[in-house]
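User: Structure tokens for both sequences below?

Assistant:
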Amino acid sequence: MAFYPVFLSVVFVVRSKDSQLEHILRSANTLISSYVSDYELIIVDNASDDDSVRVLRTLTAPEGLPNLQVYALTKEVGSDTAAWVGLENALGDFVAVIDPLVDDIAFLPQMLDKAVDGADVVFANNRQMSRQGFAYRAAYRVFHSIYKCFNGIHLAKEAPSYRLLSKRVINFILQHPQPSVTYRHLPATAGFARINMEYSATPLASSTKRLGESIDRGMRLLVSTTQAPMRLVTTLSLFGAATNLLYSVYVLAIGIFKSDVAPGWVSMSLQQSGMFFLISLVLLVLGEYILHMASLSNEGPLYHVGQEFTSARMTRREKLNIEAVTSQPLDATRHPARIGA
């Protein structure tokens, strides 16, 4: 295994895994320290409801693990938002985002090798997926088909959550108004040098995802990353206007050339065809804009870090050639010239 003189940040997002945390972090610490000169492990606790925070605090004690940086959130958020908590606080030249129970950290050196060679973004896709229910798998296929149609990429295959980013990619994402939302797709669509890799490893644990939350997250991601849905609405509006105009011409033709038309049919048909359909579309467009603007102005912060603590030992600081000097009281016998000058 090659050794890289770089500073690597590794972001773990965990929730309610107190029984596995110590083993996962000790294994990761041993592995990462074997192939990089400097590193930090950033653990984002996504509002665990067990003893995870207590375990993490113990691991950052003087007798615990070095180079840990822990952020404990006060409420559960989406996995991408939780990952962004670690990304925006990372100091490394390269930052890896890993789900320790699904992604294989042993594949990280191969990704780092590509990044050191010049790739700004390295994605890794596991060919072995966690088992999910039929409804989730069906919604999964529908969402990714729509997303690929609108954005040109298959989000799960071409921009998976297991990724390694250079610092300049993170700085680029930070310039966007909602970086925690755009972080998921932007590295794959912003024109950076990227590489997609594949590996095969059995996940440590199956993660059953909730369909309702996934649908909500997918809709937010879809609306925030493309204007295609709104373009679809405007296209339907134009189509509705054109078809209703043609229908109005048809109604007028019937009124002119037919003699047995029921009284009031022409005016009623013109009113209904010309107003109801178009008004409903206008209200839909206005409603979407209002909801979007309200979400931007009233939601508040997407996350809140309730606790933050760091390892008592940080190996990169131990390498600094700096010695703390304690100021001593001035001795008049040793420095007579400085007294009464």
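Moving on to the next sequence.
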Amino acid sequence: MKYALIGCGRIAINHLKAARANRFEVAALCDIVPGKAEALLARAEIPADAGIRTYTDYRQMLAVEQPELVSIATESGKHAKIALYCIEHGIHTIIEKPMAMSLSDADRIIAAAEKSGVTVSVCQQCRFNQAVQAMRRALEAGRFGTVSHCSVNVYWNRERSYYEHDAWRGTWKDDGGCLMNQCIHGADLLRWTLGTDIARVYGVTANHLHGYLETEDMGTAIVEFKNGTVGVLEGSGNVFRENLEETLYLFGSDGKVKLGGNSCNNVEVWDFADVQEGDETTRTLREPAPNVYGHGHMRLFQDVAEAIEQHRPPYVDVYAGRTALELILAIYKSQKTGQPVDLPLDSFSTEDMEGIFGVKTI
């Protein structure tokens, strides 16, 4: 499958490695900053004579290379525009999270994907973690009994150097704060676990330690589902020194599970009323990960390739991308209005938050 990558920043190495691991024909890389694509090839230890061409204009790259599949790893604010261009030109597309910065753009992507018939997936790759998959199987098998509540906590560190590296980070137009950038995986896991049918969201966000940014550096929300279950989402970039953990707790009448590690990659508690063969092994499941991104990109890229070949939806589709985005935007709107927000959310954008915490000064 002929593949091209658009955007060669921090997360791009995961896309490139995933494409190569899945034996895609990597034809070209593109970044608007001259030399950045070449630098990515060097980071990936790919020789200059490997035949991978580089571009600074994705439209030119697509016209010349005509890839079957692209992935988009630019700044978040450009995701929707580039995705729409790719989809409308009949190219299968993987969009790094978040899929867009507004619900209206997310809906445009969904409409374009439905019209064109191409496969579109969003990089909410934590779903592919072995620990998350084990919990999902138990949930689908009814082992939790009546589900009571779920809590997802993302306790990471993002220091000034992280934001100084790219000017778009920490802006409402192109990034959003820690909830949109770091915690949207947790939002996805919360909705995927408890269901998409949310009644209302109560959110509080703040900027305590990153006053040079426009956006929040911590936030928390109570999510009330229409069936009575309750979710809690908490995220922070304020953890001292280094990332601490991303955890998911799920409680039911007949079972409880805690997933931990840097990105919900380990099983830390596995306890059910109906003890089954294999529980002892699952209870000690640990999936070593080199960083918070884990191995999910590899599996997501594999799934997208299979979805294209089998003419089926990808495991993480555009609708999943939208539901995670909607939850984060609902939290933002609750902070802005000081009121709970009912879902479905008709329209909202990160840019509607401009001025909440001041202006960016770096």
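User: Anything stand out in the second?

Assistant: The chain has two domains: 2-126+297-317, 127-287+322-353.
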